């Protein structure tokens, strides 16, 4: 077995010498100057450590920001679109409609209403519709009723009287009739023979304070505090003249060209009329 000789290592010997010197230094008593140097050495070593750590951190940050950044994918949430509710249609302008209060059967056939036309408020009356054959029956009945009223002022309100007379005329004219038909004819016969004719609905409406007729086709009313035109009119000045004459004769007065003025003071009503067959007649009825 061969024998290997260990030769002395000069580097190792030098290191050992340095270590001996350090041990010798550490074993020496610490002087103030040595303590100061130790503190300086510690601070210097700590500073080197901090600088090296920051440098390492800065390198890591630089490497991080140099990496390609993946695009951010937004999560899109699809919502069901619901159509918003449509706004309500513009409301039409309100037209006040006023139904007349209940009155005797004669007046129940009429409806009165306020109606706006071209920005103007009007007072209208709605009466039962009369066809041409209805007027034929009326013309047959009128003289019969006038003669019967002389004997019995209330005969027109007796259902059997009108029904018997209408039955005779309906058979002659070959038309059908009903209970409502009899009521309709009774309404027109009563208002034209015993009442105020075309203006009767205005007379019996308690909301009307005054009726003003300036000509045959211009009849207005004072309704509340307003003057309103109406849908009531006479067909001609001659019809208006006949209305004034019949009105005067009913109360024992007869207007003429010599005495054209007619003044009547009735219960709750005052009538002032002027008869004028040449141009136009007129009247004013004031309710008290």
Spell out the blueprint of helices and strands.
Layout: H1 10-27, H2 32-66, E1 111-117, E2 120-126, H3 132-151, H4 159-173, H5 179-194, H6 200-203, E3 208-215, E4 218-223, E5 226-229, H7 237-250, E6 261-266, E7 269-274, E8 282-287
Helix pairs in contact: 3-4, 3-5
- Estimate what percentage of residues fall within beta strands: 15-25%
Strand tally is 8
Strand order of the largest sheet: 5-4-3-8-7-6
Structural class: alpha+beta
- Tell me the radius of gyration: 59 Å
- Termini distance? 162 Å
* Individual helix count: 7
Inertia-based shape = rod-shaped
Helix content: 40-55%
Task: State the low-pLDDT regions, or none.
Answer: 76-82, 90-107
Structural write-up:
By secondary structure, this protein is an alpha+beta fold. It has a domain of 113 residues. Helices cover 42% and strands 17% of the residues. It has seven helices and eight strands; from the N terminus they run H-H-E-E-H-H-H-H-E-E-E-H-E-E-E. Strands 5-4-3-8-7-6 form a six-stranded antiparallel β-sheet, covered by helices on one side. Strands 1-2 form a two-stranded antiparallel sheet. A hairpin with a 2-residue loop joins strand 3 and strand 4. Helix 3 crosses helix 4 and helix 3 crosses helix 5. The longest helix is centred in the first third of the chain and has 35 residues. The radius of gyration is 59 Å and the shape is rod-shaped. About 9% of the residues have low confidence.
Quickly describe the structure.
The protein has 288 residues and is of the alpha+beta class. It has a domain at 95-207.
